[in-house]
């Protein structure tokens, strides 16, 4: 995560907070993040890319991946390939969820990008969009 912008780090921190609050209530919970506070406990590479957050219960009954995107990064071809790889991975697992954190101004564009990605799901994925402005 070294060299990431303040905005990206803030979005990753929102992902960590939201995913932890929503999923930590299950029995044994594992969350790994590409964030300095997690040290070497980084998420595994998926399709050649490292998600910002990886979470699962133990034994595994669900998978959660979270990704943070700044406005510039959201529009890159690399990000489209990365998100597609994550969705392909999740589509092979039951009870999977994908969180995409973006600045609030980018929310409509982020939703459009997700809709435009082509993948053949074996299992349905739940999508969550998180912005840099917390809801009350």
How would you describe this structure to a colleague?
With 136 residues, this protein is an alpha/beta fold. The protein has one domain: Trna Endonuclease, Chain: A, domain 1 (3-Layer(aba) Sandwich). Helix content is 35%, strand content 24%. It has helices spanning 6-23, 71-74, 77-91, 107-116; strands at 28-33, 53-58, 63-68, 96-102, 125-131. Strands 1-2-3-4-5 form a five-stranded mixed beta sheet, sandwiched between helices. It is globular and about 35 Å long.
What is the CATH level 1 assignment?
Alpha Beta
Name the overall outline.
Answer: globular
Q: Tell me the count of domains.
A: 1
Mean pLDDT: 89
Fill in the keyword field for this structure.
136 residues; alpha/beta; Trna Endonuclease, Chain: A, domain 1; five-stranded mixed sheet; 4 helices; globular
